[in-house]
Amino acid sequence: MTNFIIRRTIQNIVMLFFISMLIYVVLNLAPGGPFDTLALSNPRITKSMIDRLNRLLDLDKPILPGKYCPVDEAGRPLPCRFDQGRYVRWLQRVIAGDWGESWTMQKGTPVTRMIGQRLGYTILLMGLSLLVALFFAIPIGVLSAVKQYSIIDYVATTLAFFGQSMPTFWTGLMLMAIFAVQFKLFPTGGVRTTGMEGDIIEALARIFSFGRKYPELAGREFAAILDGLWHVSLPVIVLAFFNMASWTRFTRASMLEVLRQDYMRTARAKGLVERVVILKHGFRNSLIPLITLLCLAIPGLFGGAIITESIFSWPGMGRMYIDAVANVDWPVVQGLLVITATLTVFANLLADILYAVVDPRIQYT
After folding, report:
1. E strands, the chain, where?
2. Is 40 helix (H, G, I), strand (E, B) or coil?
3. pTM of the full predicted structure?
4. Residue 355 CB: number of other CB atoms within 10 A?
5. By C-alpha distance, which of 254, 231, 350, 358 is closest to 301?
6. What is the C-alpha separation between 110 and 220, in angstroms, rounded?
7. From 165's CA, which of 21, 39, 101, 121 has a CA 20 to 30 Å away?
8. Cβ atoms < 10 Å from Cβ of 165
9. Do 138 and 251 meet the contact criterion of CB atoms below 8 Å apart?
10. Taking residues 313-326, what's their average pLDDT?
11. Nearest to 161 by CA among 70, 82, 245
12. CA–CA distance, 78 with 69 (Å, rounded to integer)
């Protein structure tokens, strides 16, 4: 197992190198740049000014290592020379912990700081929706398989198909119209009530930093947490219902396959209680497909939910990604894509390791 993990880790690092290069090259080959909208909105901006700004950001250099033929301020050509390329310089900074600065969204703000400002909200939203989906999906899937072709199975299957068929933007708008607009049980969006001092992330940061952060929240942390949970309820329900639908179907299908195995009949023939047969011998062996789904959900804890966050005005990573693409803020987009790719690659490694933990028949030699 140790040799397998070391080998896969090295392979993943090499793979991430090529993924990061592909992301950087494709984004920088895309038409448009951070100063195009500036030139369109202000006719006084000349091409020489745009070229000077591009030189300040090294955008006039080649993307990959190669020959570079610069020009001076007057546009006269200078001697050509070899340049290591923007990608190599960017990769060196990333390895050193410098992910660059925002071009347009928050000019001059480090990308790592922008990600840190949004990460807590995304983890809260995606983490809660993941827990809620698991809490309902696994028991319903197991019960649906055990009670196959019963009323419970038909109801669970119908709800699962409905949840998979309905897009999240429709479900979100319907829940907002019913529970936020009609009955006014939940807010329509945002992270805190107007006038509330601090929000749930700031309150949690103060609690876990033992009061060193956000001193103005002293004594009001509990109210801020309750208010934040109230605001996040509808987005969590939307995402949990969508995930629960697919996970219920996978759990049911995997459990049905296990229930037909010979060792399940043997366990019953030994006189074991049906609950022990189902949970100890059946459920554990049906976990492999579910492990794949759960591990592949890990990148979502960082990437967020673009549509749901936009509908409910939730300031998460998904919404920031859309804003970065719309504003041609490539440093932010590159950072988000590379981190998501890294989580995806190593989530697959984690899934392979958990396969061997759950099923002793799987061995990596």
Report:
1. 66-68, 81-83
2. helix
3. 0.86
4. 18
5. 350
6. 31
7. 121
8. 9
9. yes
10. 89
11. 245
12. 6
**Rounded Cα gap, residues 5 and 16, in angstroms:** 16
8 Å CB contact between 213 and 188: no
Query: Tokens 């006269």 sit at which residue?
Result: 76
Q: How many angstroms separate the CA atoms of 27 and 103, rounded? A: 14
Q: Tell me the C-alpha distance between 294 and 101, whole Å.
A: 33
Q: Per residue in 222-278, pLDDT tens?
A: 999 999 999 999 999 999 998 898 889 889 998 998 888 888 888 888 888 888 888
271: CB partners within 8 A, 6+ apart: none
Cα(87)–Cα(89) distance, integer angstroms: 5
pLDDT for res 151: 93
- Asked if the model's pLDDT at residue 37 lies above 80, the reply is no
Fold of 115-358: MetI-like fold (1.10.3720)
The alpha carbon of residue 125 and the mean position of all alpha carbons in its chain are separated, in whole angstroms, by: 10
Q: How many angstroms separate the CA atoms of 11 and 253, rounded?
A: 32
Are 177 and 93 within 8 A, CB to CB?
no
314 in Cβ contact with 235 (< 8 Å):
yes
Residue extents of the structural domains in the chain: 16-95, 115-358
d(CA 119, CA 300): 11
Q: What 8-state DSSP symbol labels residue 67?
A: E
- The highest-confidence range among 46-50, 291-295, 344-348, by mean pLDDT, is 344-348
